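ingest -> validate -> predict -> emit
validate: passed (alphabet ok, no gaps, 115 aa)
predict: started
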Amino acid sequence: MKVLLKSVGSIEYDPAIYFPEVENLFGITLTLSIGPDNEIGSEYFDLFVCTPEWLCKHQWLPELIRHMLIVRKYDFDEIKDTINKCIEKCTCDTWLETAQKLSRYFAWEYEDYQS
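emit:
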């Protein structure tokens, strides 16, 4: 099953034109719309993107960190490329299997959902 990154958004900014005040000091949550290539729908996954400098300034307590991408600077194309490589690596035969693998890297809206 081919799976695509269909869109990238943020509550705070338009990620395609966002530029941090300090190039190497930012943290932004991106909402990824990911779904099967041959279907209209998609599901949402969140990913926090930040620099090591942001972590040093804002994250003082020891913490296990999941669903995060650490970059040296804000480069939207590089971030999307990294996300797309991860999506490709997680692709399985079914959407559910793929979404479960993706949820290891991105916070899936249905993770731990019970019907």
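Residues 3-108 form one domain.
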